[in-house]
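Pipeline run #58 for the internal structure catalog. This entry was flagged by the ingest filter as a single-chain record with no existing model, so it goes straight to prediction. Upstream metadata was stripped on purpose; only the residue string is passed forward. Reviewer on rotation: M.T. Logging verbosity set to normal.
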Amino acid sequence: MRLIDLRSDTVTRPTDAMRRAMASAEVGDDVFGDDPTVIALEERAADLLGKEAGLFVTSGTQGNLVAQLGHLARGQETIAASESHMIIDEAAGHAVIVGTSIRALRERPDGTLDPVEIADAFRDPSDPHEPITGLVTIENTHAHSMGQPLSVEYTATVAAIAHERGVPLHVDGARFFNAVVAQEVSARALAGPADSVTFCLSKGLGCPVGSVLVGSKDFIWRARRGRKLVGGGLRQVGILAAAGLVALGDGPDGMIARLADDHANARRLAEGLAELDGIESAGGIAQPAPGRLDPARVRTNFILFKVRGDRAAFLAALKARDVLMVEYPHGAVRAATHHDVTAADVDTILQATREVLRETAGRSAAAAGART
């Protein structure tokens, strides 16, 4: 059986069109600023999101890091969601490299922060005891709420709060185009209120490597210096940027519009999982009501759920059937659909899950009988 890998949308393989573009890419030296394919990718990304300039970086984490270096002075503070990637999954780069603190606010079930709490979180710059608030960030889509897309209106509300206080808004848009497609809005509209946005090419868009950070020309110049500081200066990287140009293209090889297929597959998988005995709500931000998994909350390509019994045993039994999922915080399991997961695969995944749940339930019953 072909391996079906749902651990993340980062496991996608580049398409044939990407491989052809990479093989024939015209290259230069990006540190000198003369790699034509990188320049084309940065211009395409900036145009799509309605910003002045772009910067090709190795990863979403690097994009967020150099964005902070471009926006913040040492000792300043960022307002961010408590379960955002920037806080949980970026090795404390904000503290170690940028030299800043983060004021963490609790997310709501839809992945948003309460605007009143955002406004209240700003520090008093006249008080020498407090750090100075220098940045507000949001994550779109918001991973820990099961990939909820954040709206244009919400982004504008948060931007207005930040701008009223003279502070920029950065969007960690690792899966930004999932949010665009799920809400049927333009990338320009969704990025418009923000001062900077980073998005990953290597997730749902299917590229092997890379992210792009966009913003004003002055900001991108500062971020470029930050990229050099953290060792991100790149040379003949047009070979990688070529795949990004394919992904962001309008033609049949483009990868943006087809994200809707991933969302449909995720919803159908969630509907099937919700009917299985032994599958439960992930709880917490991902699923505020305990009990049955609610497929209606699957709006993009993430499914978060819990299983009764031993989670590790469940995942190992799935792996034995050539289906991979991954542990997620708060006792959950994550399944992420992507370009390499087909509609037919959904049926295979559900059948494997049924078999595993029956198997693990049988073991639990036998163990309970042995104890009595």
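catalog note: The first strand starts at residue 4 and ends at 5.
catalog note: The CA atoms of residues 200 and 211 lie 4 Å apart.
status: ready for reviewer M.T.
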